[in-house]
User: Fold these one by one.
Assistant:
Number 1:
Amino acid sequence: MTLEDQGPVAIAGFLRDTAAWRGPRRYRLVPTRANGQPAFGSYLQDEHEPVFRGHGMIVLTLEGAQIAAITRFIGNGMMEWFGIPQTLDL
């Protein structure tokens, strides 16, 4: 599944929704690049094991020094394409 948020209001909503959805679980980002753009592997803390599990990719579209859009790819199947692990230790 792919989601895209464009503009400051939509991006702020994305960040609020992500924080509300994950609840008390922590979230980690691992930097990488996708098509020359800044990107991050996203990881969510497992509720039952001491690891963070891959949860997808976040790709930023920049206009100058500002984020113009965030594209979110849900699922961990593409993480190996970017050379990042499926899990991270706590």
Number 2:
Amino acid sequence: MTTRKENEPSFIFPSVEKLKNKALIDELFTKGSSFFIYPFKSWYYKPTTYETAPPLFLVTVPKKAFKKAIDRNYIKRCTREAYRLNFREQAHVIASGYCLGMAYVGKEKLAYKDIEKKLKLVFNRYIQEINKQAETA
């Protein structure tokens, strides 16, 4: 087994960065701010009890739009992978202490490259919104 050297980047998506707490999920969807960039409806929220921790990330795909679990799981995997590879390190700096949620609202299953392109737009918007919120606070 190989071990990771200290200067190598970490490409894991650890469990502590996944939004799983039911109370935080409810707060995210009720008190959080949202925006829409097709095919993602995105929410962000900064709870007062969660200041210095890494950002928590959640992806959901509705069963109503994608009846087969294999399709829902594919979209969730692609979204988490694009987040992990492209935005995770950046999110640690910009969105520390935030809960980030995404719902895939498109009707068709996109390829990984298309999901990645759309996520770039979503995360640029996250950055704008979080910076705007920080300026007003």
Number 3:
Amino acid sequence: MMNKLTDIIKKIQPLEIGLFILFFIYLLFDIKTPDVINPYLSSPIGIVFIILMTLFLFLYTNPIVGIMSLFVAYELIRRSSSPFMPSTTIMTTTPTEERRNFELKAMNKPKPDTLEEEVVSHMAPIGKSEQGNYIETSFKPISDDLLGGSTI
């Protein structure tokens, strides 16, 4: 078992070591995917490309680098499909719910109150009446026995 592990480690090429270190840094630190690349990676074609590259690395490189590429591919897809952050450019990908809400809010600015709404808000007595005053009296109501009535 130990002999196989040393054989695998001896077969690692310098490029694979560099790729492993790069993958390790990407997984260890929260590196943000650039906004320019984000729409391409979160599109269906981008996800297929990431999966194909991961499959290629898994099949044709050292098994350690291949397994690490699976984790990197997952993280890359997860980080690139984060909710839409407002920006000035319009992307051509399918909009997410957050992006649609942001665009709708930008298109539908709050309208000023109409004359009728202003008049109603100033003149309506609802919610603007004085607090009720309670008067204490010596009167105590008494109820008679209910004959044949049911108690609910």
